[in-house]
C-alpha cells in the first residue's frame, strides 16, 4: 500500500509533467490513505484535487468516483447539505458515462446524508434505488447494505412494520453470507424495532444476540452498544438488576474505547442505581 510521502511525490511529479490523469489517480490514492485513517477533512481535500485533475484529463467516470468519495468524507464530517450537492453533481456526470455499481454507491451515500438530515422519506427512496440495483446485478453484499439502511431509515421514520420486514430479510441474507459482521447491526436494529413496538422482552433478546455476534467478530464498540441497549430494555421490564449488570459492562467497554457513548450510559446507570436504592 502506498504511503502518503511517496504519494505526494507522485502528485508533484505528475503535475510537473502535465499528466493530469496520473495526478488525479495519485490524489485519489492520497485521499484513500487519509480516509482509512478516519481523517475525513484531509481526505476531502485530496478528493477535490483528484476531481479537478480528472476534469482536466476529461475522465468523466473518474470525476464521478472522486466526487463520490468526497461526498463520503462530507457525510462523515456532518456536512450533509454539501455532501448532497457533491453527490448530485456526481450523478449528473454519470448521465454521460453510465456505471451501475458507481450509481448505486452514490445513491447509498445520498441516503446516508438524507438520514443525517432527518429527511427519512428521501433516504428511503435512495436506499430503495440501491436495493433495486443490487437485485438487478445479483450483488448480495450491496443488497444486504441496502436492506440494513432501509430498515434503519424506516425505523427512524416510525414505519416499524416495514423496518422489521427489511431487517428480517437482511438477517436471512446475512446468515447466508455468514460469517458477516452485518448481523451485529441487524440484531440491534431488530431490538430497537421491538422496543418501539413495546415488546421489550424480544428487544432484550435481540440485543443479547447482537452482543454475542459482536463478541464473535471482535467488535468492542458494538458489544458496548448492544449491552447498553439491552440494559434499557431490561430497565423497561423493571429488571433493574439485569439492567445494572448490562449497563455496567457497557460502561467498561465505552471507557476502554473512550467512546462518546460513555456519558449517556453513565446517566442511564445513575437512573437505574437510583431505582434500586
Query: CATH superfamily name of the domain at 1-98?
Result: Tetratricopeptide repeat domain
What's the total helix number?
A: 14
Rg on CA atoms, Å: 22 Å
Which CATH class of the domain at 1-98 applies here? Mainly Alpha
Low-confidence stretches: none
The CATH architecture of the domain at 1-98 can be named as: Alpha Horseshoe
Number of strands: 0
Secondary-structure element order, N to C: HHHHHHHHHHHHHH
Mass-distribution shape: elongated
Write down the CATH topology of the domain at 1-98: Serine Threonine Protein Phosphatase 5, Tetratricopeptide repeat
Oligomer: single chain
Helix content: over 70%
Please characterize this protein's 3D structure.
It is a single chain. The N and C termini lie far apart (56 Å). The longest helix is centred in the middle third of the chain and has 18 residues, at 120-137. By secondary structure, the chain is mainly alpha-helical. The chain is elongated, with a radius of gyration of 22 Å. The chain has helices at 4-17, 20-36, 40-56, 60-76, 80-94, 100-116, 120-137, 140-156, 160-176, 182-196, 200-217, 220-236, 240-257, 261-276.
Amino acid at each position: 500500500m502506498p504511503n502518503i510521502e511517496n504519494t505526494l511525490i507522485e502528485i508533484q511529479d505528475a503535475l510537473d509533467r502535465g499528466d493530469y490523469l496520473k495526478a488525479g489517480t495519485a490524489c485519489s490514492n492520497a485521499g484513500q490513505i487519509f480516509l482509512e485513517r478516519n481523517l475525513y477533512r484531509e481526505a476531502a481535500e485530496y478528493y477535490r484535487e483528484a476531481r479537478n485533475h480528472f476534469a482536466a484529463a476529461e475522465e468523466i467516470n473518474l470525476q464521478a468516483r472522486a466526487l463520490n468519495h468526497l461526498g463520503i468524507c462530507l457525510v462523515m464530517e456532518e456536512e450533509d447539505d454539501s455532501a448532497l450537492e457533491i453527490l448530485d453533481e456526481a450523478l449528473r456526470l454519470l448521465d454521460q458515462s453510465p456505471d451501475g455499481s458507481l450509481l448505486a454507491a452514490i445513491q447509498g451515500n445520498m441516503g446516508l446524508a438524507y438520514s443525517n438530515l432527518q429527511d427519512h422519506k428521501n433516504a428511503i427512496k435512495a436506499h430503495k434505488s440501491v436495493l433495486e440495483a443490487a437485485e438487478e446485478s445479483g450483488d448480495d453484499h450491496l443488497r444486504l447494505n441496502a436492506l440494513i439502511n432501509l430498515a434503519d431509515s424506516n425505523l427512524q421514520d416510525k414505519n416499524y412494520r416495514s423496518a422489521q420486514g427489511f431487517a428480517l430479510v437482511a438477517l436471512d441474507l446475512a446468515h447466508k453470507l455468514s460469517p458477516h459482521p452485518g448481523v451485529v447491526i441487524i440484531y440491534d436494529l431488530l431490538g430497537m424495532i421491538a422496543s418501539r413496538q413495546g415488546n421489550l422482552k424480544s428487544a432484550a433478546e435481540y440485543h443479547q444476540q447482537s452482543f454475542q455476534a459482536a463478541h464473535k467478530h471482535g467488535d468492542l464498540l458494538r458489544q458496548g452498544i448492544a449491552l447498553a441497549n439491552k440494559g434499557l430494555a431490561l430497565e423497561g421490564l423493571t429488571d433493574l438488576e439485569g439492567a445494572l449488570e448490562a449497563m455496567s459492562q457497557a460502561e467498561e467497554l465505552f471507557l476502554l474505547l473512550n467512546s462518546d457513548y460513555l456519558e449517556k450510559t453513565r446517566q442511564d446507570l445513575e437512573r437505574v442505581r437510583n431505582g434500586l436504592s
